[in-house]
Tyrosine-type recombinase/integrase (Sulfobacillus harzensis), 327 residues
Amino acid sequence: MSTPKWPTFASALAPVLTGLIAEQQALGYHPKEAQDFARFDRFCQAVGHATMTLPRALVEQWTATQPGETETNRQRRITLMRVLANFMRRSGLNAWLYPPQTAPRAAGRYVPYIFTRQEIAALLTAVDHCPEDPRSPNRGPVLSMLFRVLYGAGLRAGEALQLQHRDVDVLTGTLHIQNAKGHKDRHVPLHPALADRLARYLARQFHAVPTTPVFPNRSGEPYATLTIYGYFRRFLKEAGIAHGGRGLGPRLHDVRHSYAVHCLQQWIADGVDLTVALPYLSAYLGHTGLKSTQEYLRLTADLYPAVVSVVEQQWGSLIPGGDGHAH
C-alpha cells in the first residue's frame, strides 16, 4: 500500500504549516484534511505575504465571504485560521487569533452544512448505486429507502433506525416516532410519493412481524448509527461532495437540517405565513420549542440571499440572535 501524500508548502509560512501538519499527522488526521492549509499557502504566495507572522489583515482577507459562498464554508476557513493561530502562539510566533464569537465551531457550535437540492439528488443516486454484497443481499434496498426517509421526513438518524413495522401506518402514510429526543412521541406524515415507496419497500420484507426493524442489517437487527455514518461518508465521496474532515462536516445530521431549510425556503417562495407554519414545522421535527426551529430561518436567510428581505420585513421578529441550536 502506498504511503498517503501530505501537502507541501512554499510560502513564508511554510515551516509553520509543515509543523502544524506534522502535529495533525501524529494525532491521526488524514492527508485530505490538510488540503485547506495548502490552499491557504497558495493564497499567501499570491498576495505576497513575506513574514512568518499571521497578521489580522491577512486573516480577514482570507476569511472574507466569497461571491456565492455559503456561510458554512466561510466558517470552515475561520476555524482553520484559529487552529493555525493557536499553533503559532504555542510556538512563540506572532499571530492574530480570530475572536471566538465570530467562529461558532470554536465556541462549541457546529455550523450545519446545508445540501443543495442538486447535492441531495447526487447523494441519493450514489446510494442507489451501492454495489451488491452477497453477504448482505438487502443492503442496497435498505440504504436506498433509509436515506430517502432521512431527507424526506427530516428524521434524526436514531429515530429512523429504531422504526419497526408496527410504527408505519401504510394506510395513512404516517410514521410513529416513539421515545425520541426528550422522551417524546410524535406522528410524522409522509409525502404521498415517499409513503407509497415505503409501503412497497415494506411489502417486500417477507416474514416480517410487527417488531421487525424497518431498516435491518444482514443479521436482522437495526443498523447502528455509526455504520450508517460510514456509508454516508462513502456516498458523499461518490457523489462528489467534499467532506471537510473531523468536526467540519457534512454530518449525517445535516441531511435533517437540509430538509428543514429547504422546507422554509419553499414556504417563503410560496408566500406562506411563517408565524402560522413555523409551529407546525417545530412539531413535525420533534423540537421541544420554537427556538431550535427558528434557527433554521437564519440558515435559510444566509443561504438564499434573495429571500433575506422577505424574511426581515415580514418575520424579522422570528429570527433568533444567532446563539440558538437546531437539533
Summary: The first strand starts at residue 168 and ends at 169. Residues 102-107 have pLDDT under 50 and may be disordered. The domain at 117-238 is CATH 1.10.443.10 (hpI Integrase; Chain A). The chain is about 50% helix and 5% strand.
